Amino acid sequence: MSERGATTRYAERRRRGGARPPWGLVPLAGLALAFLVVPFVALLQRAPWSSLGQRIGDPMVTDALRLSLVSAFAATAISLVVGIPLAWLLARADIPGRSLLRAVVILPMVLPPVVGGAALLFAFGRRGLLGGPVYDGSGFLLPFSIWGVIAANTFVAMPFLVVTVEAGLRSADRRYEDAAATLGAGRWTVFRRVTLPMVAPSVVAGAVLCWARALGEFGATVTFAGNLAGRTQTMPLAVFLALESDRDAAIALSLVLIAVSLAVLVPLRDRWLAA
Amino acid sequence: MLLRADVRLRLGALDLAVEVEVGDGEVVALLGPNGAGKTTVLRAVAGLQPIDEGRITVGDTVLDDPDAGVLVAPADRPVALVFQDYLLFPRRSVVDNVAFGLRARGAGRAEARAAAAGWLDRVGLASLAGARPGTLSGGQAQRVALARALATEPLVLLLDEPLAALDARARVHVRAELRRHLRTFAGARLLVTHDPVDALVLADRLVIVESGRVTQQGTTAEVARRPRSTYVAELVGVNLLTGTASGDHAVRLGSGAELVVADPVPGPEVAVAVRPRAVSIHRHRPEGSARNAWQAHVVDLEADRDRVRVQLGGPLAIVAEVTPQAVAELDLVTGVSVWASVKAVDLAVYER
Questions:
Q1: Quick one: CA dihedral A207, A209, A212, A216, positive or negative?
Q2: Is A134 strand, coil or helix?
Q3: Which residues of A lie inside 8 Å of B (Cβ-Cβ)?
Q4: Over the stretch B23-64, which tens digit does the pLDDT of each residue have?
């Protein structure tokens, strides 16, 4: 009996190969996991389960959710369109002051988002560097609109995409691009048909990070776009506001945000980022 | 000559100045040790590495000429390159890999696939059209890479170490296959290898490159008969001795020893090549027809299939190749004193 058990464990060990962790790592990993999980358990434990359905159906919640999703996806889309070319330039092009440029690109990641929001106001506000002339000419105003939310999200989230894709480009085997060139592919064809497929996992990983960062964006949004219910009030803003007045509503909002994040991230992870 | 490449450039520690010409229908091998700059020559011809000085032309078309300010992009050159580890696009099927060049040159998907299928058929891989490159054997991947390069119908085909990625057993087979495919291609073919057997089997002509310079070129038979550098001598398995003429049929070597040769000595500075098998080993001073005999000692013994290579020291550092029987009969061990001899007719003497 015990011999059989040992045999089974042995077979199991063989099947899993070298995946057995060194003993010292297990308690530390457990500690990390507990630290990440316990707050969510606490959140669930405080959830107003009986009134949850009704609270989630509240127009304030659905508006905030719609705005959050639209602006996060829009920010991700914009980041993909202009961020991948920027990543390519940083990784490949022979440009002067590249390290300075890279630092500038990373700046929104390290800056407090509130500072980013203020900077955006100085640039695109009614009397801003670019916003002033545009407003005088056309009457269009970026802040305090959904466009402002998207702009704030993009500003804060795009660096995550750029940095990830740039790393992917740097580690990609450039000889495949050489091979494509010798087969008659011009630079654009090489980029589109060889480089981009090669860094696809990095693009997806970067887009996921970018989307996640945009979805949770608070500081820059509240500074640049304000907190107007139905217009610029995203989920994080709604949660913050609700925490002051109605704790149960805040928890309900948080649960919705968590559910949506998991629904988007888990399938993507399995599809693209599996080892 | 279809391809004329005068490649001069500096790249890191490499100082390259190599001139190669390849005629229509000719197969030329750049043979040399690793790091000699052979692959860089190919990259220059393909357009992946601009040259500092010199000129590269195919037919009447100038591809790279720094003096004239001409530099044709890789995509616009009538040149195809088969890379050392083939670099098949991993996410594309075999047929789409072969079709890539045609698609890049503007062919429609169906048209390119049909043509690619034809090329796969020619290299005997029609049945693997839908396979992913990751599932292919080394030999199959090599043929797909060849088909992919040939599908663009280049005037010049470059092959970088075409057999280096294969294991020894696959190599023999693939080498013969590659030889056959290379013969059916009409243009100029330039291949790079560090393996003399590959070069001898695949090429009509050898260009030996050492430390960024051509040290010798000629037909494989010429190079094998008259190596001009120790590297080539070792490659083709002959002993290379250098010295000066000391008579119509005598050469004085650097060590002071004198060799009698059958052929007239062609100039003041000469090289003498002798095959290891032509060197005889004796326990006592030999009698008979050998004109060159000297006392030596055994430095090292190394078994090589059915022969034993004996490194001899003394006035001539030379390798003899004898049978295992002879080793036993002569009781050869490291350090033992022997006599060595070689006939005058077995010494090839030529100008350095």
A1: negative
A2: helix
A3: 173, 175-176, 178-186, 189, 193-194, 197
A4: 998 999 999 988 899 999 999 999 999 999 999 999 999 999
